Amino acid sequence: MKLLPLQTGILYGPINSRRLGKSLGINLMPTTYKACSFNCIYCHYGRTDVLTHDLEKCKDDLPTVTDIVAAVEGALASDVKFDYLTFSGNGEPTLYPDFETIVKHIVALRNTYQPALKIALLSNSSGVYRENVRRALAFIDMPVFKLDAGNAVMFEKVNRPSRDVQFGEIVQNLSTLKHIYLQTVLMYGDPSNAEAQELVSYYEAVARIRPKEVQIYSLDRPVSNAKIRRVLPHDLEETAAYGTRETGVPFHAYYL
Ligand code: SF4
Hints:
32% of the residues lie in helices and 20% in strands. The protein is α/β, with parallel strands linked by helices. Bound molecules: iron/sulfur cluster.
């Protein structure tokens, strides 16, 4: 089974995103290994090489603020067209130590070169407790946070986080944010977070967080674990419709 290769630079794409249109990705993580606070069972980059919530041990491998700003400025000044600049890449972007500084620089560049361009963040939610991350969110047009489970047991099975990341704290921290989007990958197999009994606690967590919108996905690419499988379009649509009714939050299903 062929996984996606890691991103080899600071910028990648533009790629066609199911929800963002043409998106130019910004990778703040190392380019030779995956560093993340999660080791999601479905991650299309494969296993997390450095499972951590603190990038201190990786700091020599991170791009500098100067290099990131130069790369983004080069793209914004070029003829390449895209709709979103998106923080994502080889791991969890909010782990980057100067995340707030980077966001402010990129917002300033966007305002100078392409004021209509939007900025998105795809985050696994584990950095929301940090004050610098919370401040940076105010500048991001579409902050999207991962929630793949409704309880700690399923969270451990699907996201396989580093030891210092707690499910309860993530839900609590997300519930204090306004105007955020949630993103959920649903799967059948072992584990299955798409069965009716699992969805009860998941809908409760969504209702507590009260995001602007929930985007639910099936697996769309090869994954490293053969025990999990895709949720079919009909089931995904039903889950979205039921979720909207249960929580009062609009759900949207994405399936390829
Ligand atoms: S949070 Fe994202 S990058 Fe990290 S393991 Fe999960 S899917 Fe992969």
